[in-house]
Write a structure and sequence with these properties.
The structure is a single chain. The protein is of the alpha+beta class. It is built from 60 helices and 44 strands. The strands form 12 sheets. The chain has a 7-stranded antiparallel β-sheet, covered by helices on one side. The longest helix is centred in the middle third of the chain and has 31 residues.
Length: 1941
């Protein structure tokens, strides 16, 4: 029996959970006169006002479990009445609910308990079971069956704390007690009456009162009480008791007593709010508590908060333990469970658990409870806290009021409910305006227009409200409260009349509180209508009565007596007339129309009257045929139509024109109207919240154009591509709206009918016309008075109205769903397919789909895979489903429905036939001309990945492109297409502005340069409708801000994004363009790495044989950097003879590596390493040998160590390294451990003059030098403390120091720190600190070196003193030295100014060297500086990018905003710091100290500084060849992480792009600007490298180190295996090839000075923004891919083919469009081009430009004109030569009169010293003076032209030499009239003049005897005269000068 009960109960639970309250539960038909259902406020006849107080009385007792387990089970001893009532069957499973935790015996007598359980039957009726449980001793027979087990169960139960033991139990030992329960079952909720009545029965039994229990029970079961209406009734059960029952005034309001207030007390505001939202949005809520009564109260409280919505899912306030499985039901629920079962609830993943005893609410991770929409959430929260905690407001008052009145618990309960009632009124305000009344008779059918409600409230996006409106509770709300004629309650009043008041009170908390209290009063009065009369008189048992021994158990009652009393009462009731409560029914007030909860102004489109005016005038122009006027306004209209008001205005205007019969348009008008309609529908979501699509629906079927006689095209065929048309909810809402309009018209008087509003889908807004709800209400009132025939007639009329609308809609839907070209199956591809429509339905309670369309449509995915012919089928199915649904819901008869199903296919077929004719004719119309897609030019090997997607390129904030300050044309926005290739993203198109003309706009960047991509949506700049767009930003300073054309589908745009991402971040570098390029050439399999063996081996053999010849190679040619042929090797440069490099022939294995000999494979690797750039450079610098065993090697301080040849010590270093001679290879391993990334200090450059060396390394680890210094300053001896690696490191540094030549000085040691004690302190040059050093003439003269160094002897106008120490110190300290530079007051003598400095300075990171006190005995000194990290470079670059390419037009256009954002980026500050540190290192090296740069990991800033230092110090690196060598050596070989910093692969995506190399190039550019004559390469070369180091077009800048390049087989691949014209894989190779063809990389003003050490100004004010960042050429895109540049300029005028007069060849050059260098080449380039052209004309092979240029320069030097004026070329040279070299003097050529203006290029006016300014003055006057003097007037003893061999690697050059006996010097100039001396050879330094030998590159035609050498103490100069006699003449003259001296 028990098992059956359990199963039945569980089944009932599930049924209840799954079925919930079906639609039928709202109608209450009463079978029995005593039925106790609460009446529903609806249009039904009024129900009876009386009901039974109790339906059943049950006595349940403990019984043993049938299977003998220790658990007992309840069984019903007796129930009264024994027969079920007809209207209320006996609830199953009641015994489970009496003891929810299970039936168990107990060792003590517990006090009686009482709680009310709630059961819900299958009809959603709630039954309240009041249970009073008491304990009785077990009779021996009852317990005998399982006493042992029972005892065990008891013990377990005790341990679990489930049994409350009473200490005073007076039971004999071993006595057990069994529970017995008295149960009252009722459908009324009178908890207190039940408690009293059951208590009375218990009292009679316990106290043994002389009252017959049967009589009391009989009276209880026959007691009839009123249901509602505020009546009260006094009842007595015949035991001398009296109880008063009060009924609430309004039955619809819930009765909560104190339950809500208790719930807030237990859980708090936030928790209750989240439970409230969870219950409303249909989540599962579980309450836990140890008290059953609390569970019941909490559930009751939560339900009361949900009013006016009714909870319609599973609701079990107390769930028995046996039914816990119900918790895993899939439907929502509110359930209470005893806290002892908490463990069983742990694994529930989607249940929100509220622990009432602990006060917590646990929300699982997977559950999202949407919060209330703001501002309601915060407002509700604050009002709740005012109600619950009124003292919170007063807590901070200085004088709080003495007492605060707190409400009673009951009152507080009502106040809390009032807050939620207000909340619902605000949420649902205006809901009645969105009700569609579909039928009035025989029953009202009402639908809610959800989309309109959300749209008008401005809450379309709100998750919470959306879910509430879709929920079952709201469906019930609509069907219950939507009825227009019914009784009203508090909520109806509130939502209709108080909304305005609530809005007004929002900001006044006290007013809100007052309103809450008023509502609370009403709620309180509803529950307690007669507060004074609550007089109960009920007997209670005495204290501790449960412990007394009761003589007998609860008796068995006499069924007959009870049944007799019940029957008597029933007979009496039948005789009496039924008491009927008349229900006051009225028309429900609608209240004011709705407003948005939050007035969200739609940002861009605050629709002013002006905008609406524009829309109106544009439409009137269209209809008046003024098409030009309309065209002008169209863009503005399309922008305005983004706003709701403008759309509404647009549809109203069109309605007017339709009414005036102006719906037939010509083609142009039709295009305009369709375009505007499309724009209106553009952002229309699928639900059409703002009614735009609804208003346009009648219009699209009205406007049309005639294509040919009898063929008309309607507007609907052009506006189908919008998702809204395929949304069933939209069609349903539209249908119901139209039905409502027509039904309303049925009942209006003919006079009123004219007032019917035309606005479909919206209730008419006229004040006087009754709304549809009003009409319906009136009709419902009259209905009972009508005759049956009249009623039938009205029903039929309504039904046929609905039916005719259904036919109408079947037509409309076929119009909008069938595409014009129905042969295509691409129907509605862009929108939601018409497949899964059941789920998306808008109907709230569906019982549609009357079986006519039986086939399941879910198997298809809408139109996607429909067959070609099945477009019609899909549309038919869609329409049929719609028709089924709406007709079933609105009560159309089944015959009519069948008829409709027959009609639909015919309608569709007819429409298809009509469309075929329209389609045929429309194809004959001339199409709207869209510009032809311009295909971009591609590089060889570049392939298109995605063909052109039509886009508009939008202006991006760079003013020039859009017309801007330059006054050029508005090139942007441009219309064209974007192409994605394997290498670039390219836009090509034409400007949309018709005034600009046919200019092609090209903007592109390499895919690899993409740094940021984001989706944008932008207001359309052009006529077409734009979808969303993309903004792509690249680190080559290009920005593509594109908006996709309407024809580009979202999937194409998405595909573009995905492909772009795939190309930008390939998983592996082999996927980049540099590798895939040329990979497809046939017959060339990719070479595996191992194939390289043979070529390398032969190479190494040659190398070792010719080891001696490798020394000091000179590379004069500028070809690709292959090693020159062996025969052509020149001699080593004479000046380096004393430390010639030797690669030893006897490679003695034992000496090379201490541990083991070189294996043959190692030798091979080594020989290839010797080949590398580093090695060539070391040889040029005279650094090191490969052997340590040769006798002469001891004298050489450094050697080349092959220790890293296998990259074992340091992966990121090159294979061969320069280390001190004295350090063994095995020690290097240990030294390397002290440095980050094992990058230990190695030599990378040596100064030819001072022999100081520059070293580089990574930063130190924690130990190392820092530890070493600290250890030495410690009291105990340092040696013992330092560990071995630190010792090794110290030895290593010692070795470096001892390898340098010493410069001893008498004045003693004076380190940097001596200059200012604070210099090494915490001061660091602040970015803008102006460094000024005072100096005086004496200091200036003293600072000159003994050998005059030309202009370098002077003090710089920048204010640096020649005394370098003071200068370096002050710059390090970053503070102005205000006094003379000495500390101790010593005179500023020469010894002081040129102190002996430390042999080695270590430039380290300040943070790393913190706390280090340099020890004066050390030979090295630490220079801590602050450096910026890579992430700061990245951040700064991002801001620089935004400053140069903003992305959107600035608020205040002009230079100010650009400069501000430039300053914010701090890019120039970083450049300043780099230059500052580099100049400091240059100064130190120049003064003879060596420097170790040891910053960060040694591969970013270190590389930048080291490279800049070499560039500034060594003129060789300022040539094309040298710069290449510098980059190869310092950046590529020494492992700058190009791939990591450039984020080349997927792995590096997160780290982003960090432009370390670009920053270095910017520094070079700054130096180039200041010293334009010192660089052989042009600025374009730097830009070219800047562009291509990120482009991934070449393999040069890929990967992070030589090791990785070898691993990938890149390093030695270009070994001559490939002579064909394949694409260049190396950027250098490309530069070489290009340089042969064009001088684009060459700097014409290159005129170097051999000994020049550059010291640029580094202040921010001296730095210029590199035009690489700001310039662009829209005519052809970036100019760095030379092949893609446009062809030659147009032919000269003489050759005009038509023979007409030559036109002028002048043309407009636009900024930002044309490439200025190409449009206006400089004079030299122009002449060279002209020469080439003329030579080609003459049929000669054109000479190379370089040969021509060299020849011209040589001729220029040889022949001076008698009048002293040179050729144009020489003028150019002389005018440029005045450009600043060392001093800040610019000679600016003025206008024609050539007035020379003089400007000092220095912002340090305070710092320009006396001597400096005097020097400057002297300099400038001499320059001025020399303009008017003849060149001969100087002291010139002898002069003439000699060829001079430049320093190492430089070519022979013809110079004009002047021998000056007076000054005892040999000066040379570029040419005869040159006034600016290029160099001086001091004859005092000349040791010998001897005959010379011709070297490589010498003039070919000259006799060998014309060569002679002049050897000085510094170097050997090689000269060559024009012939032997003049050579002899020169030698004699120089000799005689020497002998005279």
């Amino acid at each position: 029996m028990a098992a059956e009960v359990l199963v039945a109960a569980a089944a009932a639970e599930r049924a209840r959970g799954v079925l919930g309250p079906g639609p039928g539960h709202e109608r209450a038909a009463l079978e029995s006169p005593s039925r106790g259902a609460r009446p529903r406020p609806s249009g039904h006849p009024a129900p009876l006002a009386m009901a039974r107080l109790a339906d059943y009385f049950v006595l349940v007792a403990f019984g043993p479990h049938p299977r003998g387990s220790g658990e007992g089970q309840g069984h019903i001893l007796q129930r009264f009445p024994e027969r079920d009532w007809e209207d209320s069957p006996f609830p199953q499973g009641i015994e489970l609910f009496c003891q929810p935790s299970g039936w168990q015996l107990c060792a003590e007598r517990n006090p009686p308990t009482f709680f009310v359980a709630v059961l819900t039957d299958i009809n959603s009726e709630r039954h309240y079971c009041a249970c009073l449980t008491f304990w009785e001793p077990v009779e021996p027979t009852q317990g005998a069956a399982g006493t042992d087990e029972a005892l065990e169960r008891e013990e377990e139960a005790e341990e679990r704390g489930q049994v409350q033991l009473s200490p005073t139990a007076l039971a004999p030992p071993g006595q057990l007690f069994a529970p017995k329960t008295l149960v009252l079952v009722s459908r009324l909720d009178h908890t207190e009456v039940f408690r009293n009545s059951l208590g009375l029965l218990y009292t009679i039994h316990v106290e043994g009162l002389s009252v017959c229990l049967e009589n009391v029970i009989g009276n209880l079961l026959t007691c009839i009480v009123p249901l509602a209406g505020g009546s009260q009734r006094t009842i007595s059960l015949g035991a001398g008791d009296r109880q008063v029952i009060q009924t609430p005034l309004a039955d619809s309001l819930p009765v909560s007593r104190c339950s809500v207030a208790l719930l807030f007390r237990q859980l708090g505001i936030t928790n209750v709010l989240s439970l409230f939202c969870a219950a409303l949005t249909e989540h599962k809520v579980l309450f836990l508590s140890r008290s059953y009564q609390r569970l019941a109260d909490a559930c009751r409280g939560l339900l009361a908060l949900l009013f006016p919505l009714r909870y319609s899912f599973t609701y079990v306030p107390i769930l028995p333990a046996q039914l816990l499985e119900v918790l895993s039901t899939p439907t929502p629920f509110i359930i209470g469970v005893n806290a002892t079962f908490q463990a069983e609830t742990q694994e529930l993943l989607d249940v929100i658990i509220a622990d009432l005893d602990g006060g917590t609410v646990t929300v699982p991770e997977c559950v999202h409870i949407p919060p209330l929409p703001e501002p309601l959430q915060s407002q509700t929260h604050s009002v709740l806290s005012m109600v619950l905690d009124p003292e919170l407001e007063l807590a901070d008052l200085a004088f709080p009021p003495p007492t605060t009145s707190t409400s009673s618990l009951k009152m507080q309960d009502k106040e809390l409910r009032a807050v939620f009632l207000r909340l619902f009124a605000q949420l649902l305000q205006g809901y009645r305006w969105c009700l569609h009344i579909v039928r009035i008779h025989p029953e009202p059918v009402i639908r809610f227009h959800k989309a309109a409600f959300l749209g008008q409230r401005g809450l379309v996006e709100d998750d919470f409200l959306m879910k509430v409106l879709e929920g079952m509770a709201f469906a019930g709300f609509v069907s219950e409260r939507g009825v227009p004629y019914r009784s009203t309650d508090l909520f109806d009043e509130l939502v209709a009349h108080d909304v305005a008041r609530m809005r007004a009170d929002e900001n006044y908390p006290q007013r809100v509180l007052r309103h809450v209290q008023e509502l609370a009063e009403q709620l309180y009065k509803n529950e307690n209508p007669y507060p004074a009369v609550a007089m109960h008189k009920v007997q209670r048992p005495g204290e501790a009565s449960h412990l007394r021994r009761v003589p007998r158990p609860f008796p068995r009652l006499d069924e007959g007596t009870v049944q007799w009393i019940v029957d008597q009462a029933a007979a009496k009731m039948q005789g009496a007339p039924p008491a009927v409560r008349t229900e006051r029914r009225t028309t429900v007030p609608s209240g004011p129309p709705m407003t948005a909860i939050l007035e969200r102004s739609s940002g861009l489109h605050i629709n002013s009257a002006r905008r609406l005016e524009v829309v109106r005038s544009c439409i009137s122009y269209v209809f008046e045929g003024k098409m030009l006027e309309a065209k002008k306004l169209l863009p503005a209209v399309l922008r305005a139509l983004k706003g709701r008001a403008a759309r509404r205005c647009f549809t109203q205007e069109l309605h007017l024109h339709v009414q005036q019969n102006r719906a037939v348009l010509d083609h142009q008008q039709f295009d305009f109207i369709v375009r505007m309609m499309n724009c209106c529908l553009q952002d229309c979501t699928s639900l059409d919240e703002h009614g735009t699509a609804a208003a346009l629906l009648p219009l699209v079927t009205a406007f049309c154009r005639k294509l040919s006689p009898g063929v008309t095209q309607f507007a609907y065929s052009c506006v189908q591509e919008h998702v809204v048309w395929s949304t069933p909810q939209f069609w349903e809402a539209m249908f119901y709206g139209d039905v409502q309009t027509h039904i309303r018209a049925l009942y209006l008087e003919p006079g009123e009918e004219r007032a019917l509003s035309q606005e479909t889908g919206e209730a008419p807004s006229q004040e006087d016309a009754p709304s549809a709800l009003d009409v319906a209400s009136e009709q419902r009132r009259l209905w009972p008075t009508l005759s049956r025939e009249k009623q039938q007639e009205l029903v039929q009329k309504e039904e046929s109205t609905v039916f005719s609308q259904a036919i109408h809609y079947a037509n409309r839907m076929s119009y909008l769903l069938l595409p014009l070209d129905s042969s295509k199956s691409r129907l509605l591809r862009e929108r939601a397919g018409l497949g899964d429509l059941e789920s998306a339905s808008n109907s709230l309670v569906t019982n549609s789909m009357a079986g006519s369309v039986a086939e399941s449509y879910d198997t298809e995915s809408g139109f996607e895979d429909a067959e070609t012919c099945d477009v019609a089928g899909a549309v038919v199915r869609f329409i049929n489903r719609f028709v089924d649904k709406v007709c079933t819901e609105s009560g159309v008869t089944s015959d009519h429905l069948k008829g409709l199903h027959v009609m639909v296919p015919d309608i569709v077929q007819m429409h298809i036939e009509t469309l075929e004719a329209v389609h045929r004719e429309s194809k004959r119309l001339p199409p709207i001309q869209k510009p032809k897609l311009l295909r971009p030019r591609l590089l060889p090997g570049e392939e298109c990945v995605l063909d052109g997607l039509r886009v508009y390129l939008l202006p991006d904030g760079r003013e020039e492109g859009a017309g801007g300050s330059g006054g050029g044309p508005a090139l942007l926005p441009a219309e064209g297409a974007v192409f994605l290739t394997t290498y670039r993203v390219i836009f090509t198109g034409m400007p949309t502005d018709p005034l600009v003309g046919e200019q092609v706009v090209v903007r592109s960047f390499p895919v690899a340069a993409l740094t940021k991509e984001k989706r944008i949506s932008t207001p359309a700049p052009v006529d077409q409708l734009l979808q969303d767009g993309l903004q792509l930003r690249s680190c080559t300073f290009q920005l593509l801000k594109m908006a996709f054309d309407e024809e580009v589908g979202s999937d194409s745009a998405e595909l573009f994004r995905k492909q772009l991402h795939k190309l930008r971040y390939p998983p592996d570098l082999r996927g980049t363009f540099a590798f895939t390029l040329g990979a497809h050439t046939p017959g060339q399999p990719p070479r595996a790495a191992k194939d390289k063996g043979p070529s390398l081996r032969t190479f190494s053999r040659n190398l070792v044989k010719n080891a001696k010849k490798t020394i000091g190679r000179q590379y004069v040619t500028r070809k690709k950097y292959n090693p020159p042929n062996w025969e052509h090797r020149g001699q080593p440069p004479p000046e380096d003879q004393e430390d010639e490099i030797s690669v030893s022939e006897e490679l003695e294995p034992s000496t090379l590596t201490p541990s083991s000999a070189l294996k043959p494979s190692d030798r091979m690797t080594m020989s290839s390493l010797v080949e590398r750039a580093c090695c060539r450079d070391y040889q040029r610098l005279g650094l090191g040998t490969l052997s340590s065993s040769l006798s002469r090697a001891k004298s050489e301080p450094f050697r080349i160590s092959p220790v890293n040849r296998m990259y074992a010590i340091c992966r990121s270093y090159p294979g061969l390294l320069i280390v001190p001679q004295s350090v063994q290879d095995n020690a290097l391993q240990r030294v390397s451990r002290c440095y980050r990334q094992n990058r230990f200090p190695v030599v990378c450059w040596r100064s030819g003059r001072s022999k100081a060396v520059l070293l580089r390394s990574g930063g130190l680890h924690g130990k190392g030098v820092v530890g070493l210094f600290k250890a030495q300053n410690a009291p105990s001896p340092g040696q013992s403390q330092a560990d071995s690696s630190s010792l090794e490191q110290e030895k290593y540094l010692q070795a470096v120091v001892s390898a340098m030549p010493r410069y001893a000085d008498a004045s003693g040691r004076n380190t940097l720190s001596g200059f200012s004690s604070a210099h090494m302190g915490s001061h660091v040059p602040s970015p803008r600190a102006r460094v000024t050093t005072l100096s005086n003439p004496m200091a200036a003269s003293a600072s000159r070196r003994t050998a005059p160094r030309g202009k370098w002897g002077s003090v710089r106008a920048s204010g640096r003193s020649g005394g370098l120490g003071a200068d370096v110190g002050s710059r390090l300290a970053g503070r102005d030295v205000l006094g003379p530079p000495q500390v101790n007051g010593a005179p500023p003598d020469q010894g002081f100014l040129r102190p002996q400095r430390a042999a080695l300075y270590i430039i380290g990171d300040k943070a790393q060297l913190k706390g280090v006190r340099p020890d004066p005995l050390q030979q090295w000194e630490l220079v801590p500086i602050e450096v910026f990290e890579a992430r700061q470079v990245k951040a700064s670059f991002k801001k620089l990018l935004k400053a140069c390419v903003p992305g959107c037009p600035a608020d205040e256009p002009g230079p100010a905003s650009f400069l501000r954002s430039l300053e914010d980026s701090e890019w120039l500050v970083q450049i300043h710091k780099l230059l500052q540190v580099s100049v400091l290192v240059v100064e130190l090296l120049d003064s003879g100290s060596s420097v170790l740069v040891s910053l960060e990991d040694g591969w970013d800033i270190t590389t930048q500084v080291v490279s800049l230092v070499q560039l500034l110090s060594d003129p060789f690196y300022r040539t094309l060849e040298g710069f290449r060598l510098l980059v190869e050596k310092e950046w590529l070989s020494f492992g700058h992480r190009f791939s990591h910093r450039g984020a080349h692969t997927l792995a590096g995506q997160s780290s982003g792009y960090t432009p370390v190399f670009l920053q270095f190039l910017d520094c070079v550019h700054q130096i180039h600007l200041q010293f334009p004559m010192e660089f052989e390469f042009s600025q374009f070369y730097l830009k070219f490298l800047g562009y291509h180091h990120v482009s991934r077009r070449f393999r040069t800048f890929l990967l992070d180190s030589d090791y990785e390049r070898i691993e990938l087989g890149l390093l030695y691949e270009e070994k001559g295996e490939r002579k064909g014209q394949l694409a260049c894989k190396s950027v250098w190779e490309y530069v070489d090839r290009l340089s042969k063809r064009t001088p684009v990389f060459y700097n014409y003003v290159y005129a170097p000075e051999d000994t020049e050490v550059l010291r640029p100004y580094s202040n921010v004010s001296n730095l210029k923004v590199w035009d690489f960042y700001t310039e662009e050429t829209l005519a052809e895109g970036p100019p760095y891919d030379w092949e893609l540049a446009q062809g030659p300029p147009e032919p000269p005028e003489e050759e005009r083919p038509d023979g007409s007069a030559p036109q002028s060849r002048r043309r407009v050059v636009w900024p930002c469009y044309d490439s200025c260098p190409r449009a206006q080449p400089d004079a030299i380039s122009r002449l060279l081009e002209e020469l080439q052209r003329l030579e080609t004309e003459l049929g000669r092979p054109p000479e190379r430009w370089k040969d021509t240029w060299d020849r011209v320069k040589a001729m220029q030097r040889l022949e001076g004109r008698p009048d002293g004026r040179g050729t144009p070329s020489s003028l150019l040279m002389s005018s440029v030569s005045h450009h600043r070299r060392s001093l800040g003097v610019y000679l600016q050529e003025g206008p024609v009169g050539s007035t020379l203006s003089l400007s000092l290029d220095s912002d340090q006016s305070s710092g320009s010293t006396a001597s400096g300014s005097r020097q400057a003055a002297r300099r400038s006057t001499s320059t001025l003076y020399s303009q008017f003097q003849t060149a001969e007037s100087e002291n010139r003893s002898y002069e003439g032209t000699l060829y001079k061999k430049g320093a190492f690697m430089k070519p022979w050059k013809a110079r004009w030499f002047v021998l000056d006996k007076t000054k005892h010097q040999l000066r040379y100039y570029d040419h005869r009239v040159d006034t600016d001396c290029k160099g001086i050879i001091d004859l005092a330094e000349v040791e010998a003049v001897a005959p010379g030998t011709p070297t490589m590159g010498a003039p070919k035609t000259v006799d060998e005897k014309a060569f002679f050498d002049v050897k000085t103490t510094r170097r050997v100069y090689n000269f060559c005269a024009q012939d032997v006699p003049s050579a002899q003449q020169w030698v004699d003259r120089i000799q005689s000068c020497l002998s005279d001296a």
